[in-house]
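User: Hi! Is it possible to get a structure for several chains at once, not just one? Here's what I have:
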Amino acid sequence: MNSSKTVGLADVAREAGVSLATASRALNSAYGVAATTRERVAEVARRLEYVASPEASRLATGATRSVALVVPHLDRWYFGEMVGGLEEVLREAGHDVLLYHVGDPEGRHAFFEHLPARRKVDAVVVVAVPVTDHERRRLELMGVTIVAAGGQDATYPYVSIDDAAAVRQATEHLLRLGHRRIAMITAVDPDRTDQPVHRGRTRGFYEAMVRADVPVDEELVVATTWGGVQAAEAMENLLSIRELPTAVLAHSDEMALGAMRTIRRAGLRVPEDISVIGIDDHPLAELVDLTTVRQPVRDQGLQAAHLLLALLRGQKPNLAQKLPTRVVVRSTTTTAREKQPSPAHPAPDTTSH
Amino acid sequence: MNSSKTVGLADVAREAGVSLATASRALNSAYGVAATTRERVAEVARRLEYVASPEASRLATGATRSVALVVPHLDRWYFGEMVGGLEEVLREAGHDVLLYHVGDPEGRHAFFEHLPARRKVDAVVVVAVPVTDHERRRLELMGVTIVAAGGQDATYPYVSIDDAAAVRQATEHLLRLGHRRIAMITAVDPDRTDQPVHRGRTRGFYEAMVRADVPVDEELVVATTWGGVQAAEAMENLLSIRELPTAVLAHSDEMALGAMRTIRRAGLRVPEDISVIGIDDHPLAELVDLTTVRQPVRDQGLQAAHLLLALLRGQKPNLAQKLPTRVVVRSTTTTAREKQPSPAHPAPDTTSH
DNA sequence: CCCCTTTTCGGAAGCGCTTCCGAATATGAT
DNA sequence: ATCATATTCGGAAGCGCTTCCGAAAAGGGG
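Assistant: Yes, the chains can be modeled jointly so their relative placement is included. Here is the combined structure:
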């Protein structure tokens, strides 16, 4: 199966009539080798299709030239997009990208206790995963550079969006349309019991409301985990309130879609009866005409990777980068209706219990 | 930054009072070391938090214990899900997972010409990427085990779904609802000009139609690249046909959503005027109540990984596995209408030019 | 109690590359 | 032409681990 013997540096050196040392220097275009020699060696290497053994050079140099990506989910658009961005610049910079999925609590625990990436990477980027103090300490045991991509984590050099600003933009969009009874479905990370809701995003909402001098009805802000069906359920609660909201702001597009499903099933119309706005600008948001605030996910990945590379090079980059967001108006938001709508069908039974 | 010196095998050996050779054997639980010795070494290793240098052991053994994942997109649900499945079992089996994104033609070319994974992995899994003959030849240069996950490729041991069957199921669902004028929006891979449309899926449609003895109107099958907005445009063409279809079958859920947007913008209703069915059961499909045929994506990843591991172990697993699909009925399909609907607004101008 | 087999372990030779150091040769100034 | 300096290159010592091979120790049978 395996064609012939793999060619090693020794073969190249012999063929080019130089020593191993010179061959190595020539190929790494290091200083101290005559231009003509370098060219000759390079030529031979090309002809022989020589590929350096990464193991050997890593052993010799100590640098692994690879970085670990620690990701909590792979199956959500946000993470795929982020990883895509990271991978692109990392790969172009000649680094290998190792993927570590730390989904559920057990997987998470396993990762931080065993540190499978130990001794294998020069750096790790945690994407949108809030690390506990203990986990941080474990990570540091690896003794490598760490950066955060996305999420709300200031423990490491990071690039993300300004979550508060994003929600503020969404809220202001609704306020501008005349909405006053604005509901918010906040997201909480299921793995992190110590931090009940998404702090930044929630804060942005309150900021915009007080700034506009509109009182917020606490009944209208509900929390749930990320995910459409969870948000759909949360929306049921919202619909069981006496005085319905005229608009709802969800912490993600998936959640917004879930809310819309509940609204429609209750016989209400979007946006005539209730406006809906999400966050992300998920690719499908365009297809369902969802108004949302767009965040540049892929860019966050790209920037985070650049940040990491700069750090690795010993430069002093900007350690805290926030990328801008902006609202994309589509057709799920409109001006606030005047009076309470009467549902065609009553809302699902979610009265009290 | 780096805490103390990393402990090496030599430290463990010294501390345990044995030779390097014995320490190595003890830790790899190889044959030929007394149980008590083994235990003592293990204990010391644990206490010192010893972690073997993967570089060194790889260099010495020749096995890399890592596998490359070659993925054409990272930002689409299907691929994230697939990668998630692969990563899970591969990681549990102690392998590292290297990610290689081969998106556009240049990236693709770069990958197959430079073979960046060369000498770095024991195996590669190509996920849903059809490889050309030339690419196949390049890949083989790596001299490693190869499997395919998803997609329509029989060049390597694979696990995927039966594409023809999936579309047949979708078509039969529509036929059962009384539809006769069924349109299909087929997907074509933009990187593969030599293979115009998705063969399997397209075939399944024709099979179901002839089996039901319903003639297919060639005007009703249109091709486009994967993606919602592309499908939306394709749908515009479909709506400019004199006698409208009563149902449309899209090759993916994203495409189905695109089609729905066009239909609704044309003032027609889904499903009353036109039924829509997709393929995949994208997580958002549930939220928008899209009827679709579900394919087990994550399972394909899991199975593919197991297949790979078996191959690596020298076993003889089933080299061609097809996982079942089934239609999930939601609310975008209903019985065929009797008469031509009259659009509230005329369809967008797509008449001839 | 001796000799032969089995078990346990240490020495040492790599794995394929990088890099320090010094030798050899070339370059330039005087 | 001469000497100091700069350039180019080869020898050799690792990087941290695995594993072959043989020596030493332990076990067993007569």
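The mean pLDDT of chain B is 91. Chain B touches chain A through 58 residues (CB under 8 Å).

User: Great, thank you!
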